[in-house]
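Data card: per-record layout.
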Amino acid sequence: MADVNRGNRPLSPHLSIYRPQLTSMTSILTRITGNAMLVAALLIVWWFLAAATSPDAFATADGFITSWFGDLVMFLSVWGLWYHTLAGLRHLYWDTGRGYEVEFAEKLGWGCIGGSVLLTLLTVALV
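The structure for this 127-residue chain is written out next.
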């Protein structure tokens, strides 16, 4: 039988009372960085293929990758690589059955975020 009160009830969890958790946001960010690194890898493959094809093709690819937008994509892909690496280490730690306490899991999440920013800045400064 149809629920006649269905339209009068709030959604669960309702957007006005739901606060996203750091662990869920870092999990989503891990998936986003994984896909973003794939896009950056395709750009690099395009650059290599263009270099092997012709000087005109290479000039086009090199012009794109060395533009401000290409620099931004490459910078963010370095950050994504570090973030994805640290998040993978966090998951390896969780696979041992430790670190599931909420406070500690949040510290690990902030560690992934802060560590990836620090390692990105160090990488860009040193390279």
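Known properties of this structure: Residues 50 and 60 are 8 Å apart (CA to CA). The radius of gyration is 21 Å.

See the next section for split statistics.
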